[in-house]
Predict the structure.
Amino acid sequence: MFVAMLTAAALSASAYPDPIAPAARGQMQCYSPNTAAKSCKSLAIYTAKGNGTFANTVIVLVKASPVTLLETVADVTMRDGAVCGAITEANIRTAKLSANAQAVPPEQAAPFMEQLVTALTPVLDRDICTRYEGPGPLLTAKATMDGVPQPDDDQTVLWVSASDGYAVKP
């Protein structure tokens, strides 16, 4: 039984290769962390889907007051040590919007989603890859779009556990 548990743990961990190996332990990526306030501007959660793909759930702070969050899910893969995927119009249209911890009904969220699709049109369906650099625990997320570095989009990232108390908030 002990061997079976070790084998299951090894298989589970190997499903999450670097750079997202901490996700196998239930950790999430906190972007732009404020360690004193235990806040993030966004959280990224990875769930293995099989065949080397992952569902990347991202919760983003859209507005500070009222606290408005957007939750999207997109498929990503690991390629040459980077997390790669594309944001699609469908990812945006199926996103969940909340205000002050209350779900915004889809019909009320629709105008905002439409504006978001328009604003994000230049990056939709583009190959976006992110590498994580640094010795840790704080890393720098460095993105490329269609292979071109996007240095203005560099962000600080910290792996956190749910029990650490971090949340997406202002």
About this structure: The chain has one domain: 2-168.
